[in-house]
Specification:
Blueprint: H1 2-38, H2 49-53, H3 62-71, H4 73-86, H5 91-122, H6 124-152, H7 178-213, H8 216-219, H9 224-230, H10 236-245, H11 247-255, H12 264-295, H13 297-323
Length: 327
C-alpha cells in the first residue's frame, strides 16, 4: 500500500510543474482572448468580408453575417438564417455563404482556444504548425466557397428587393463600459479554466502514469501495419482515439509521449486524423443540435453535409502533404 502511495506521490510531483506551467499559460491566454473579444478587436480580422462576398456574387450585406461570425458563430449563422428566411438568399446562395463563413468562424477559436490552450499544451513548434494547418484548412474552405459562388451564383439566387425586410445591423451594440467588459472577460476565463484544468489534470496524470509504467510501443504494436502505411508511429493510435472523444485530452496525450516518438509533421498529422474521426462524435454532440436549431432539419442536414465533406477533403489533403516523403 505504501509503495502505491509513494508511486502516486512521485507521479504527482512529476505532473504538477508541467500542469502549473500550462495552466498559467492557458489562464493568461484565455483572459487576453476574452478581453480582445469583449472590446471587439476580433472584428477587425473580419474586415476582409466584403472582398469575398462580391467575387462570390453575394450582396455586401452578407458580409455583415461573416463579420459577426468572427465574434459569435451563433449570431453569424442567425443573421444568414434571417437572410434566407426573408428571401434575400435562396438555398444555394445560403450554402455558399455558409462555406465562406468557415474561416471567420475559425478566427474566434484561434483567439479563445487554439492559441491560449492548444499551443501551451503541444509546445511552440508543434502547436504553431498545428494551428497554422487548421487555419489553412479553414481558409481553403472559404476560398472554395468564393470560387463556387463565382461559378454557381447569379442574380437569380439573390432577391435584393428583400433587403427592406432585413435587419442588417449585425450584432447588437455593446453599451458596457471598460470595467464591465474586463470583468465579464475574467468571469468567462474563470469558467473556461474550471472546465478545462480539472480534466487536463486527470488526463495528464493518466498519460504520464501510462508512459511511466507501461511499454506504450508494445501496447500499440498491433496498429503498426496501419500506422506504418501512413508513416506514423504505433503510439499515434491512442492519441487518435483520445482526440476523437476530446481534442484537449488528445493534445495532452501526444504531449506526454516520449521525446522523439513524434516529429512535428507526424504529430500534426496524427492530430488532424483524430479530427477526421472526431467529426462523427462532434456531429451528434454539437453540429446537429446547433444546425437544426438554426435552419431546421432539412436545410440543417444540407449544411452539415457540405461542411463535413469540405472539412474531410481539405484535412485529408493536408495530412497527405504533411506525410509526403518528398520533404
Amino acid at each position: 500500500m505504501q509503495s502505491v502511495v509513494a508511486e502516486f506521490l512521485s507521479l504527482l510531483a512529476e505532473v504538477a510543474p508541467r500542469l502549473t506551467r500550462i495552466t498559467a499559460f492557458i489562464a493568461a491566454g484565455v483572459f487576453a482572448a476574452n478581453v480582445a473579444v469583449a472590446f471587439g478587436l476580433v472584428r477587425y480580422v473580419a474586415g476582409l468580408a466584403g472582398w469575398l462576398t462580391r467575387p462570390a456574387n453575394l450582396p455586401d450585406e452578407v458580409g455583415t453575417a461573416i463579420l459577426t461570425t468572427a465574434a459569435s458563430t451563433t449570431a453569424g449563422y442567425a443573421t444568414l438564417a434571417e437572410y434566407r428566411d426573408t428571401g434575400l438568399l435562396d438555398d444555394r446562395a445560403t450554402l455558399v455563404a455558409v462555406v465562406i463563413n468557415t474561416f471567420f468562424g475559425f478566427v474566434q477559436h484561434v483567439f479563445t482556444y487554439y492559441v491560449p490552450v492548444m499551443i501551451p499544451i503541444l509546445g511552440t513548434e508543434i502547436g504553431i504548425v498545428y494551428v497554422s494547418a487548421r487555419a489553412g484548412i479553414a481558409l481553403a474552405i472559404t476560398v472554395t466557397g468564393v470560387l463556387l459562388g463565382g461559378l454557381l451564383l447569379s442574380e437569380h439566387n439573390v432577391d435584393r428587393t428583400a433587403l427592406a425586410n432585413v435587419d442588417a445591423d449585425g450584432a447588437e451594440d455593446d453599451d458596457r463600459d471598460s470595467r464591465e467588459r474586463v470583468r465579464d472577460a475574467a468571469e468567462k476565463s474563470w469558467s473556461t479554466l474550471r472546465r478545462i484544468v480539472p480534466r487536463l489534470a486527470v488526463v495528464y496524470v493518466l498519460v504520464i502514469g501510462l508512459v511511466t509504467n507501461y511499454d506504450v510501443g508494445a501496447l500499440t504494436s498491433v496498429a503498426e501495419p496501419v500506422t506504418g502505411v501512413l508513416g506514423l508511429p504505433g503510439e499515434a493510435i491512442p492519441v487518435i482515439a483520445v482526440y476523437t472523444l476530446d481534442t484537449t485530452a488528445g493534445a495532452v496525450t501526444i504531449a506526454g509521449a516520449e521525446p522523439g516518438t513524434f516529429t512535428t509533421r507526424t504529430a500534426v498529422a496524427t492530430l488532424l486524423i483524430g479530427g477526421i474521426l472526431s467529426f462523427a462524435v462532434s456531429t451528434f454532440r454539437r453540429s446537429i443540435p446547433f444546425q437544426y436549431g438554426i435552419w431546421g432539419a432539412e436545410f440543417g442536414t444540407k449544411v452539415i453535409a457540405v461542411n463535413t465533406a469540405l472539412k474531410l477533403l481539405f484535412i485529408s489533403l493536408t495530412v497527405a502533404v504533411l506525410l509526403a516523403p518528398v520533404w
